[in-house]
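Problem statement: downstream parser choked on a complex file, so we are re-checking the raw output for the 1,6-di-O-phosphono-beta-D-fructofuranose run. The parser issue turned out to be on our end (a line-ending mismatch), but while we're here, posting the original submission so the record is complete.
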Amino acid sequence: MEKSALQIARAAYQPKLPKALQGPVKVKEGAATQSVGNQEEIKALFPNTYGMPVVEFVPAESENTEPINVGIILSGGQAPGGHNVISGLYDGVKSLNKSSKLYGFLMGPGGLVDHKYVEFTDEFIDEYRNTGGFDIIGSGRTKLEKEAQFESGIQILRQLGIKALVIIGGDDSNTNACVLAEYYAAKKYGVQVIGCPKTIDGDLKNEQIETSFGFDTACKTYSELIGNIQRDCNSARKYWHFIKVMGRSASHIALECALQCQPNICLVSEEVEAKQMSLDDVVEYIAKAVAVRAADGNNFGTVVIPEGLIEFIPAIKKLIAQLNEVLTDPTTGEPREFKSAEEQIEFVLSNITAENKAVLESLPADVKRQLCLDRDPHGNVQVSLIETEKLLSAMVAKKLAAWKAEGKYNGKFSAQHHFFGYEGRCAAPSNYDADYCYSLGYNASRLISNGMTGYMSVIKNTTAPAAEWVAGGVPITMMMNIERRNGANKPVIRKALVELDGAPFKYFASKRDEWARQTAYVYPGPIQYFGPTEVCDQCTKTLALEQGKK
Ligand code: FBP
């Protein structure tokens, strides 16, 4: 395989580990935990894995060095650093005992069920160190939730002598990891299950998890692109750029990009919901900013839009909730089957309330179609398919035209559209993600060698130099509550949305009026892997603000 100069130089990078993981470790137990909500129900559903303590690893004289065979799965959307979790885990199990083995299940959880796997070797792992992507074994979105899947999984795990399975995923995949851990514990199968917090969306975080891996690199990649667009925009001075960024429901990515680039406008879905804004309110908010800048002679600007926006507009949220109910077969809990898209739309229209029908009918045909038809295997609306950036700019253009006719606006409005998602998901991990991911993987080997199951690998204090990072584990049940999914109440990890009283949003809110009117753009430039530490080793602004760092 031919490699770029950067790839070759980057392959030699040795990711940093927290000091505690640089030698033998022992477990320091914290207090017993409870779930973030619905404690009694979660406890009853997870009798074997509920209430376990948070743990931290501290240096020890010696540790258990029995060889262990471990399996790993990459689940869901790609996120920069996944390969380093695998190389960290590989080095971790080998450091315990050279005879330990690491197997990778292919193309996501489906690889476990279908018994498709590879065994990692030194040469194989070395090809992927510090690289972006999940191509080492591929990823997939198969839901691991049925007994038949768990039973099929145990056959191959036993055949390969695998003692523990590591599932690298977001909130849905780690929810499934927790269910699997409980199932294997209840059956006394002797297989541990460990989760690892991945998602560029940044919405798998809480008191114990500072950030999900990949968020750092993805946001820096989008910020570079947005910065470049802003420079073009400020040079030509003739376009308004509508830039949608990934992130599914939460607006963490949009907010981080705004903190990095200072665009004229950044919408935050969580605020739109809290203020009960309608689609027209959002359009009016943008149009007003366009008109103010036009009055100053600036017929250009940038608008950053979180991809989940549409789901947070209260009327549309209500509609989606009902769509999720009616599109699920109540007897099986599975999506209803339809012969054609037309039949599905027809069914939807005759089974939702008049109010929801009116909302659906008010949307452009393609948005209407996407809301009715497309769901991922976890039942989520596929917001990345909805072209909100085009929908909003068309509605803004219409409003400005009306204002022009009334003599309220006298500018020129011409729009360009962008969607940044896939551009950032497989970027070569920043130093932060390279170190964080390697540490998460290495740390998982210690959770396993210490007999833990139903835990997520956690690395804390990550705004400090890596040597000071704190390594340990948190019971996945601690993050769970009951939510309505696909027409049924289910135990799930609580998603972390942007907190409107949190430091990142508050800082943004204190600056946005200034950024809206002026041209206060910042151009972050590309991620740097070599050079001064203040350029190469910055964490995200979100994390820095959350931890009270400058
Ligand atoms: P995960 O939550 O699985 O990490 O995926 C994140 C994400 O990139 C979202 O931002 C986006 O909405 C979605 O995946 C797109 O998924 P797909 O690649 O399957 O179209």
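For whoever reads this later: The CA atoms of residues 220 and 527 lie 7 Å apart.
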